[in-house]
Specification:
Blueprint lengths: L1 E2 L8 E7 L11 E10 L4 E4 H4 L3 E4 L7 H6 L8 E6 L20 E11 L1 E2 L8 E7 L12 E10 L2 E11 L10 H7 L7 E6 L21 E11 L9 H20 L3 H15 L25 H24 L3 H14 L4 H13 L3 H14 L4 H32 L10 H4 L15 E3 L2 E2 L3
Length: 453
């Protein structure tokens, strides 16, 4: 028998009945156990076995009595042990009437079935599981936008494949060849914490793998990850108007760089930050705060030049979100971003044109033509809009001709005639390729390639 209480005060005495194997759980892990609880006279007051249902909880988080939080973390899979818990590690002076009298020392026969790390994913799909090996300090976790300094050792099938450190802005990991699973885990870590992080392939290198690191496709990886330190990003409400403008300019520059590199998803995240920080009815006067705190930081109002700059940045944020959505194939999101931009500048040619492109993605040819006509109202010689209208008109004609053939074939089948062989499907579908019929996009830096502003 051994005292397993952290204070070593005899509060939790453990007696192993059956040895287990492997490692032990850490704080935050979800464990599943069978147990039987007894008073010292041998009378049973509770048993999961009677219910034929494993008991599951997060250990070390206060969901159970102190004796369990400290005693369960010493158990291995398959282990059966008796934990004898003094009142201060059980239900204390009050007890738990009517079954547990006041000041009762309790015996729990516990069988450890399984445990796994804290699920760090938003969808709770088990894709990133974290088990703390060295506790961190403080109460806060880094949030997206924080500057983090980390180190890790990555392994697959007990073979070490990478040992590395990095300092970067949380949310920009992909630009530093850091897998999404690491960033997901960091959001749940404390400064100085080291954790064993199991990352499913979906949150690592996917089905492709990483040849340079010898990571095979569809490989689940294990990281020993340390959050050495971090500098928290300011909340929006902590910034005055001038600080928001400076922040928006910085993320716009980063977003444009990502766009040029073809990292449209990362660029989109940066452009969304612009609108998140400058929109939401701030009126660019710095007088309001979205904080729940009673203390509101005094903010320096913007001058006219700053107000104008803020609105230019806000327009660019929406406009560039639209082009990123188009590059990522999301026409509906692109259309919404264009509408938001046109609320600020109804005659913005780029957004009018991109509305047409978004409509094309949905094969709404007539709607697309109308959007391109709106471009010509502002600029009646706009070559890109004129050419796009021609392309849409041809595609609409081809689509209608195809539909007519399909209906004709349907009637022939109804009359029990042998159906004609349909034309090849690829010739009938609307063409969005960058080859024939492509035009120079509005606001492009070079022929045929549209750039973020």
């Amino acid at each position: 028998m051994v005292d397993v209480s952290k204070a070593q005060d005899g509060g939790i005495i453990k007696k192993i009945l059956t040895e287990g194997a492997g490692d032990t759980p850490s704080a935050g892990n979800e464990v599943s156990v069978h147990y039987t609880g007894r008073l010292l006279d041998g009378s049973v007051f509770d048993s999961s076995k009677d219910r034929d249902q494993l008991f599951k909880f997060k250990v070390g988080t206060g969901q159970v009595i102190k004796g369990w939080d400290e005693g369960i973390v010493t158990m291995k899979r398959g282990e059966v042990a008796i934990l004898t818990c003094k009142p201060e590690y059980a239900y204390g002076a009050a007890g738990s009437p009517p079954k547990i009298p006041p000041n009762s020392t309790l015996e729990f026969e516990v069988e450890m079935h399984d445990f796994y790390g804290e699920d760090c994913t938003e969808s709770s799909d088990g894709g990133v599981l974290k088990s703390t090996t060295v506790a961190g300090t403080g109460l806060s976790n880094p949030r997206e936008g924080a500057t983090v300094k980390i180190s890790w050792v990555m392994s697959h099938m007990d073979m070490e494949l990478e040992k590395r450190s990095a300092e970067f802005i949380l949310g920009d990991g992909a630009a530093h060849d850091i897998v999404p699973g690491i960033e997901t885990a960091l959001l749940k870590m404390k400064k100085g914490e080291t954790a064993k992080v199991t990352v499913k392939s979906l949150y690592a290198y996917g089905n492709v793998g990483n040849a340079e690191l010898a990571v095979p496709g569809a490989a689940d990886l294990t990281y020993l990850l340390t959050l050495e330190t971090f500098e928290q990003a300011k909340y929006k409400y902590e910034m005055d108007g001038a600080e928001k403008i400076k922040f928006a300019e910085q993320v716009k520059e980063m977003g444009t760089q990502y766009f040029k590199e073809g990292k449209y998803d990362l660029a989109l995240k940066k452009y969304k930050l612009i609108t998140d920080y400058l929109e939401e009815g701030d009126d660019f006067d710095g007088d309001e705060s979205d904080s729940d705190s009673e203390e509101v930081k005094e903010k320096k109002p913007m001058d006219k030049a700053d107000e104008d700059r803020a609105k230019v940045l806000l327009l660019a944020g929406f406009s560039n979100q639209a082009i990123c959505h188009l590059k990522l194939g999301d026409g509906n999101a692109a259309l919404k971003a264009c509408k938001d931009a046109l609320q600020l500048d109804p005659n913005n040619i780029k957004c009018l044109f991109r509305k047409g492109q978004a409509a094309e993605m949905s094969q709404e040819w007539e709607e697309a033509i109308n959007h391109y006509k709106a471009v010509l109202v502002v600029d009646n010689k706009n070559a890109a809009a004129i050419n796009a209208m021609k392309v849409c008109t041809n595609k609409m004609k081809a689509f209608k001709a195809n539909q007519k053939k399909r209906f004709a074939n349907m009637f022939e089948r109804t009359n029990f005639k042998e159906p004609e062989r349909a034309p090849e499907e690829n010739k009938l579908k609307p063409d969005f390729s960058d080859s024939e019929g492509d035009e120079e996009a509005v606001g492009s830096d070079k022929e045929g390639e549209e750039m973020a502003v």
